[in-house]
Amino acid sequence: MNILAVGAHPDDIEILCAGTLAKYAKDGHKIFMAHLCHGDLGGKGISRKELLMTRKKEAIEAGKVIGAKVFSGIASDLDLYTDRTARKKAVEIIRQAEPDLIITHAPNDYMPDHRATSRLIFEASFTATLPNYKTRTKAHEPIIPIYYMDNAAGIKFDPTLYVDITKTIDIKKKMLLCHKSQHKWLKGHHNSGAVELIDTLAKFRGLQCGAAYAEAFRILDVWGRNRPGKLTGN
C-alpha cells in the first residue's frame, strides 16, 4: 500500500503518527510524508528564510529514518487557507503519492494551521479523484479513506482505532529528534519537551488499549470513504 501522512508543519507527523508509519514501513509499504506549512514561524532568534530551510532539511532527515518520500510546504505558517491555489497544490501531492489511505489532522485540533490542513486535505482528496480537474499529475480516482491522527496532547479527541507502537516507539523518537531546531522552541513556547510529549501521550493511549505504547486515530466516517472489514479479537 501507499500511505500518505499530511501534517501542518515539519514534526507534526512525527509527534502524532510516526510510530504507525514506521510499522507500515517495516511491513514493506511505501510511505509519503507531507507538511503543508514551511514551519517558518516556529522559532525565535532566527530569520524566517533560514528557519524554512532548516526545517525542510530536518523533515527530509526524519523521513529517511523510515525511507519515506517527503513533500515540503506549500505556504508560510498561518498563511494556509482552503482556497483554490492551496487546494490545487494539495491535489498534486495526493496524485503523486497515489495513496491507499491518508492520515491527517483532526478538524478540531489546537491551532489554525492544523485545522486548515484537515479541511484542505478533506477537500483535495476528493478533488484529486476528478479527471477533469487538471494538475501536472493525472487523477488518482479512488476515493480514499481518511484517518485523523490524535490531537496535540490528546485533548478533545475520541479514538475509534488504536495502533500498538511498542516496537516502533524508539523509531518515532529518532524521527522526532531529527527536528533539532524545535527542541528548545517547544520547551519554551509549549512548556513541554518534544520527546516527553510523545512518550507521555503514547503511554496514555497504550493504557487505553492494553499496549505499552500506542497511537490513536479516528476514521472519517462518510459515504464513499468507508471500507468493509472484519472484527478481530486481538
Kindly provide the radius of gyration, computed on alpha-carbon positions and rounded to a whole number of angstroms: 17 Å
Low-pLDDT ranges = none
Number of helices: 7
N to C succession of SSEs: EHEHEHEHEEHHHE
Write the layout of secondary structure elements.
Layout lengths: L1 E6 L4 H15 L3 E6 L12 H18 L3 E3 L12 H14 L3 E5 L6 H16 L18 E4 L11 E4 L4 H9 L4 H8 L4 H16 L4 E6 L15
Helix pairs in contact: 1-5, 2-5, 3-4, 5-7
Plain-language structure description:
By secondary structure, the chain is of the alpha/beta class. Helices cover 41% and strands 15% of the residues. Helix 1 (12-26) crosses helix 5 (169-177), helix 3 (84-97) crosses helix 4 (112-127) and helix 5 (169-177) packs antiparallel against helix 7 (194-209). The chain is globular and about 45 Å long. The mean pLDDT is 93.
